[in-house]
Amino acid sequence: MGDNGTGGTGGTGAAAGALPPPRGLVDLRRRPGAAVLRYPPDAVVIVSGLPGSGKSTLLRRRPPGVAVVDPRDVHLACEAVMPAALPYAVYRPWARLTYFRRLRAAVRGGGPLMVHDCGSRAWMRRWLAGEVGRGGRELHLVLLDVAPAEALAGQRARGRRTARRVFARHCRGLGRLRRHLPPGGGSGPTAVPAAFTGLTSVVVLDTCSREHAATRFDADVRGLPARAPAARAGEAVSPAAGAAPAD
Predict the structure, then answer these.
(1) Which CATH number goes with the domain that contains 77?
(2) Over 80: is that where the pLDDT of 201 sits?
């Protein structure tokens, strides 16, 4: 499915910039240099952030053979079969149902999977955690912590703007998530906050670290502990045994 290079789905060779497999909350904000995030070969990785924050760019760096489910693809597919004069709002429920069905089929199909999601819907994370956990797999989150002004600049650069009302809703949803993150950046792994229950890891990137981040899915990650414990105040989670420090 993949290759053995730095972007492949398999192989045990260490890639340049490869970090220990993420466990718990891994804050890479303000961290310069390459960051290769290594996951088990059957992991499901959600990439979340504001519209324009760089989710699609990060997903394009995924290794060959890794599936991705993106609501934008579903939107365009539904739009292609609808009359041009019909507003998207009319068939939005059908598009959302189609997206949900695609996502469920992709999760149940096995293999590495990346999911493009705004991150503002807690029910979606809970549902995914249940579906993925029943299959004995891990669910991870990569959260792009990008300010609204930067996200809007990203939208202008790509030539596609999100409606003001929709963008404001995403800002509120991501704001609720950000309240559970530490204020600093570049700290060592800690426990997954309770708001992210069901996730094996939460990796936080900012404008700096997202530019050099990439993902890979490696067979040699499989034997690591399945899940970080829920957060308790001041509690830290050590990196995997024998793993090098994250920085």
Answers:
(1) 3.40.50.300
(2) yes
